[in-house]
Amino acid sequence: MTTIDIKNITKIIKKNTVLDNISLTMSSGKIYGFQGINGSGKTMLMRCIIGLIHPTSGRISINGKFLGKDIEFPESIGFLLENPAFLDGYTGIENLRMLTKLNRNLTDTELNTILDKVELTDAGNKKYKKYSLGMKQRLGIAAAVMEHPDILILDEPTNALDTNGINIVKDIIVSERNHGALVIISCHDTDLLINLSDEIFRLQAGQLVEHTVKKSTAK
């Protein structure tokens, strides 16, 4: 069971308040949608949860451990923020292989299974610099989910994807949730966000202005 507890976090950058006294709690086995226009604070909140930045005030705890104090980063997390970034001179599977050495050391068989899941089977041995935007996005999704993390954070996961790619990503997100992951997504496609999410947090000008829970997931 994974729980993220956010209490009164505020982030100020150059006298600009980008997150304003946000509090929320999330737990495993659910998909949480972060909704809001560009600049509303969605990506900044994700960065705080990942541990890439620290809030100016307030705290974030994961399973009772405080980010920036007890742990620097969540102990089991996969994420895709904005545009995926890999090494141009290496193939898709080589890029994944280098990433997995940081933690679990997945076998090539396991990596190929992940590439199959995002339908990059024939592109695994192709140099990343030759990938289309959609292929790059698929590889980014593969990197985020390949170790089946307890926490999965995807910022605009359907960017540059065609209808087939979007359906693949939707299936992966639901599958990870069903296997017990705590999933956080943001997406400009409101219908997709509503259909996928068990709960939605709407942000506006750095503030949490609405929290919606689907009736089927309400306690």
Layout of helices and strands:
Blueprint: E1 3-13, E2 16-27, E3 30-35, H1 42-50, E4 57-62, E5 65-66, E6 77-80, H2 92-100, H3 108-117, H4 133-145, E7 151-155, H5 163-178, E8 182-186, H6 190-196, E9 199-204, E10 207-213
Parallel strand pairs: 3-8, 3-9, 6-7, 7-8
Antiparallel strand pairs: 1-2, 1-4, 4-5, 9-10
Describe this protein's structure:
With 219 residues, the chain is of the alpha/beta class. The protein is built from 6 helices and 10 strands, in the order βββαβββαααβαβαββ. The radius of gyration is 17 Å and the shape is globular. α4 (133-145) runs parallel beside α5 (163-178).
N-to-C SSE string, H for helix and E for strand: EEEHEEEHHHEHEHEE
Shape: globular
Question: Could you tell me the strand content as a percent range?
Answer: 25-35%
SS field, number of helical segments: 6
User: Which whole number gives the mean pLDDT?
Assistant: 94
> Helical amount among residues, as a percent range?
25-40%
Biggest sheet overview: 6 strands, mixed
The Rg value, from CA coordinates, equals 17 Å
By helix and strand content, what is the structural category? alpha/beta
Key traits:
single chain, 219 residues, alpha/beta, 4-stranded antiparallel sheet, 6 helices
Structure summarized in a few sentences:
The chain has six helices and ten strands; from the N terminus they run βββαβββαααβαβαββ.
